[in-house]
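Researcher: We're reviewing a set of sequences before deciding which ones to prioritize for further study. For each one, I'd like a predicted 3D structure that I can look through quickly. This is Thiamine-binding protein domain-containing protein. If possible, include the structure in token form so it fits the rest of the review sheet.
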Amino acid sequence: MIVAFSVTPLGVGEEVGEYVADAVRVVRESGLPHRTDAMFTSVEGEWEECMDVVRRAVAAVEARAPRVSLVLKADIRPGVTDGLTAKVASVERHLS
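Model: Here's the predicted structure for Thiamine-binding protein domain-containing protein, in token form for your review sheet.
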């Protein structure tokens, strides 16, 4: 499965990069395949693994912010691996 999520601290002002970095650090330390862009971080693995990473990423931000917003989208496809790369590769093939 692939989970794309965004963790946003609320009540800390406009500059939230250092708080978001706490969440991304959790993802990177998880050892799961992942990607981070300007809006979301995507992580790939089994349901329990992905949800645990999301929970810990939220907790990391929650430890420093009075309120946290979480947006989550999941692609649940049993048996599919390397979806983070394969989905992008498919689009690139159609573009060339």
